[in-house]
Design brief:
Strand order of the largest sheet: 1-2
Radius of gyration: 23 Å
Low-confidence stretches: none
Largest sheet: 2 strands, antiparallel
Order of helices and strands: HEEHH
Number of strands: 2
Number of helices: 3
Oligomer: single chain
Structural class: alpha+beta
Number of domains: 1
Shape: rod-shaped
Mean pLDDT: 86
Length: 79
Amino acid sequence: MLVKLSSKGQLVIPKRLRNALGLRQGMKFDVRIEDNKIVLEPLGEDSPIEALYGRYAGEEFLTLLETEHQEELKADAGD
């Protein structure tokens, strides 16, 4: 199958190949040279932590968790 390198150094993997290999947007690849050939090896799924990285930027989860923890401590002390 013939593909063309773009001016930005990008290649498009044809849809038929992406479907056959189960490749999805955002997947990471190991790229290396073997026997003077370029090898792209899919690395599989990101860890759950990597999948969430940056998704909740700007949220104050730590503050909310600290507040919730303090409320639980007060409730436990009252029992």
